[in-house]
């Protein structure tokens, strides 16, 4: 739209009409109105930190100062699209195992709390000694029936704690140690950081300022703190590659990439290319995670239900033989 000399406020009004959520429509319309009142786009975005990522107002400000708003908006659009793709991959890879695990737990609890107790009265009528496996199944049923309410309450408490700052940090630390999933999380986080950093640098933002802006994109609290420290160190004249190499929270691979970018004078291009490679790796890990979790859970729940069925039917077959 900017190529066709359409006023920026009118272009944003068109975007507001295309928004699917009423709240988003209202936010975008308010921004368009502020532009008509003479407020800069960067200031309008900065005043809404919950609606836009922190780096976007800085990106727009650089565009306003350099007079290259059209070009930088195109780069920002590309970066936001990459962020959306990564978030979808992260959400999909996170929700599927949780859903599958939750479904498995529900099936197991239903079997233990409804199917197994139905056979208890049958066994009591015959007053016969039960096989050990049947006794174990009945004991598990008693435990499950007694634990169902504490389990529900405990799950709710865990979810509440996980939403808090300390709980979320603790959960992230444990998830990062999970095989496959931890590697997937690390690549998603680093891809967002390096991709956004590349975009900010290509738009002319100083490296120290750009590092400070991308720090909040990291899902790793330790890396976030390190990026903020890097920002101060780079501002004081220290090379980023040496800082990354001396840090225990980043890989030597990243240090090598940064050093290559510094030597070639094209840090933004090198980081951008590496970010795309990380995104490809993240997609591979997401596919591997889904392919690994599904058969594992299906096999586990199948074996569990099969074992319970054998445990409850074994005494019936034995009693039938005695009756003959």
Give a short synopsis of this structure:
The chain is 82% helix and 0% strand. It is mainly α.
Description of the molecule:
The chain is an all-alpha fold and 324 residues long. It has two domains: 2-74, Receptor-associated Protein; 75-324, Receptor-associated Protein (Up-down Bundle). Helix content is 82%, strand content 0%. It has helices spanning 8-18, 22-36, 41-46, 55-66, 69-126, 132-163, 165-175, 181-202, 207-214, 221-235, 240-246, 252-264, 267-323. Helix 4 (55-66) packs antiparallel against helix 5 and helix 11 packs antiparallel against helix 12. The longest helix has 58 residues, at 69-126. It is elongated, with a radius of gyration of 28 Å. The termini are far apart.
Q: List the uncertain runs.
A: none
Main β-sheet: number of strands, strand sense, barrel status?
Answer: none
CATH architecture of the largest domain: Up-down Bundle
Determine the N-to-C terminus distance: 87 Å
- Compute the number of helices: 13
The proportion of residues forming helix, as a percent range, comes to over 70%
Please identify the structural class as seen in this structure.
mainly alpha
- Radius of gyration in whole Å, from Cα? 28 Å
């Amino acid at each position: 739209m900017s190529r066709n000399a359409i006023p920026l406020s009118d272009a944003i009004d068109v975007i507001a009409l295309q928004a699917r959520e009423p709240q988003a429509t209202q936010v975008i319309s308010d921004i368009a109105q502020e532009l008509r009142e003479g407020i800069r786009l960067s200031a309008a975005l900065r005043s809404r930190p919950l609606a836009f990522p922190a780096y976007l107002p800085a990106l727009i400000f650089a565009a306003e100062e350099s007079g290259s708003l059209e070009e930088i908006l195109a780069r920002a659009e590309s970066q936001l699209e990459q962020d959306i793709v990564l978030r979808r991959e992260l959400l999909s890879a996170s929700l599927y195992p949780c859903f599958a695990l939750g479904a498995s737990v529900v099936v197991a609890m239903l079997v233990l709390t409804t199917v197994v107790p139905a056979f208890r009265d049958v066994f009591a009528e015959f007053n016969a000694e039960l096989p050990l496996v049947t006794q174990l199944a009945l004991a598990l049923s008693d435990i499950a029936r007694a634990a169902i309410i504490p389990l529900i309450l405990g799950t709710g408490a865990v979810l509440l704690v996980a939403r808090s700052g300390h709980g979320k940090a603790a959960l992230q630390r444990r998830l990062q140690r999970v095989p496959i999933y931890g590697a997937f999380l690390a690549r998603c986080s680093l891809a967002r950081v390096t991709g956004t950093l590349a975009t900010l640098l290509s738009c002319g933002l100083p490296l120290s300022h750009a590092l400070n802006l991308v720090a909040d994109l990291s899902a790793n609290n330790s890396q976030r703190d390190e990026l903020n420290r890097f920002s101060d160190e780079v501002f004081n004249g220290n090379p980023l590659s040496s800082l990354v190499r001396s840090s225990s929270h980043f890989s030597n691979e990243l240090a090598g990439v940064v050093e290559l970018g510094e030597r070639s004078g094209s840090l933004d291009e090198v980081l951008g290319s590496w970010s795309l490679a990380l995104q490809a790796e993240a997609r591979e890990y997401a596919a591997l995670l889904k392919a690994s979790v599904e058969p594992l859970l299906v096999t586990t729940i199948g074996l569990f239900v099969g074992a319970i069925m054998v445990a409850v039917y074994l005494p019936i077959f034995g009693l039938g033989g005695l009756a003959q």
